[in-house]
Design a protein that fits this description.
Layout (H helix, E strand, L loop, with lengths): L3 H8 L5 E4 L6 E6 L14 H10 L4 E7 L5 E10 L2 E6 L5 E6 L13 H14 L2 H9 L5 H4 E5 L2 E5 L21 H5 L10 H4 L9 E7 L3 E6 L12 E6 L3 H10 L4 E3 L3 H7 L6 E4 L20 H10 L4
Parallel strand pairs: 2-11, 2-12
Antiparallel strand pairs: 1-12, 1-13, 3-4, 5-6, 6-8, 7-8, 9-10, 10-11
Helix pairs in contact: 1-2, 3-4
Subcellular location: Periplasm
Family: Belongs to the bacterial solute-binding protein 5 family.
GO molecular function, one term: peptide transmembrane transporter activity
């Protein structure tokens, strides 16, 4: 799968569905509920933001992709592969992981990847105390940045944690932990904004298959292929994502041929489309998250036994 954005746009609802009106050539037009709220990977994750990150950012590790009988590529959760990390080693005690970066990787701005990009991305995330900081402190229990993150050489980085963790390897698959092009980022830093939050909110600086060339919040976002992408130039040279908050409007645009893909349609709309000639409805499983939170200070949830009972009631299969 060379064109990550073509496949991911279909799979992006993470357990949702998308309908295709025609076979795109080099440009794909997508209608979805909303544009990303921010292009900064430290922005709290939403469905729209996750879709952006999977199409623009590149991670150190990923799950291997496999093609099913329906022709759609899925993540194989049993196999991890290197992305920006060509290879890696986990220490026998599960207290450190060493990443050896892939040579020849170039960002959308033409800058080669090296350990400084990784370390700067880590340092930025740590200091902004948002997504990256949460994963490191809450999942890996890191307390000291300097003790945890080490540049071994120009193409090698090591992460050390205080206690063994079974998530030390799999955590780096998360699309919230993309690596930034630090050379591009440093061109846009100011004393008032030392980590480039203002610039990255509306621009991209990554090593992924696509870069953002236009971002109009509430209207549209345009992705264009990174012609230097290390896995080959994506087949889709441009993807135009248009915000259409109403499901009925997305359906009408699809039926009129104004868009190629419509996301997040209702079950009734999908059922109707599935019976129409020239329309393909793709369904994929994913990790769409529904949250039910309890007020632990309010009865009966202030009783730990009640919370434990509710935990046992949640189906796990």
């Amino acid at each position: 799968m060379q064109a990550a954005i073509g496949a991911v746009m279909v799979a992006a609802p993470w357990g949702g569905q998308a309908a295709w009106a025609q076979s795109p050539q080099e440009t794909l037009i997508v209608a979805g509920p909303r544009t990303p709220e921010s292009l900064d990977q430290e922005y709290p994750p939403t469905e729209a933001v996750h879709e952006l990150r999977r199409n623009v950012n590149e991670r150190l590790l990923a799950y291997e992709m496999k093609k099913a009988e329906d022709g759609i590529s899925y993540e194989d959760f049993s196999k991890i592969t290197g992305v920006l990390a060509e290879r890696w080693e986990v220490a026998p005690d599960f207290k450190s992981i060493t990443f050896h970066l892939r040579p020849g990787v170039v960002s959308g701005a033409g800058h080669p990847l090296d350990a400084d990009d990784v370390m700067w991305s880590f340092e930025r995330g740590w200091n902004l105390k948002s997504n990256f900081h949460w994963y490191m402190t809450q999942i890996l229990k890191i307390e000291d940045f300097d003790a945890a993150f080490t540049k071994v050489d120009d193409m090698t980085v090591r992460v050390s944690i205080p206690n063994a963790s079974p998530l030390l390897e799999k955590l780096w698959i998360n699309s919230d932990l993309g690596i930034l092009d630090s050379d591009t980022m440093k061109e846009h830093l100011t004393p008032e904004d030392p980590w480039g939050q203002r610039w990255l909110a509306t621009n991209s600086a990554s090593f992924g298959p696509n870069k953002v060339t236009k971002y109009s919040p509430g209207q549209e976002i345009i992705y264009e292929a990174n012609t230097d992408y290390y896995r080959g130039v994506p087949k889709l040279k441009k993807v135009i994502f248009r915000e259409m908050p109403t499901s009925a409007n997305r359906l009408a645009a699809l039926q009129a041929g104004a868009v190629d893909v419509a996301e997040y349609l209702s079950p009734r709309e999908l059922s109707m489309l599935g019976q129409m000639p020239g329309v393909t409805v793709n369904k994929v499983f994913g990790n769409f998250i529904h949250r039910v939170e309890m007020q632990n200070e309010t009865p009966p949830f202030d009783n730990p036994k009640v919370r434990l009972a509710l935990n046992y009631l949640v189906p796990r299969g």
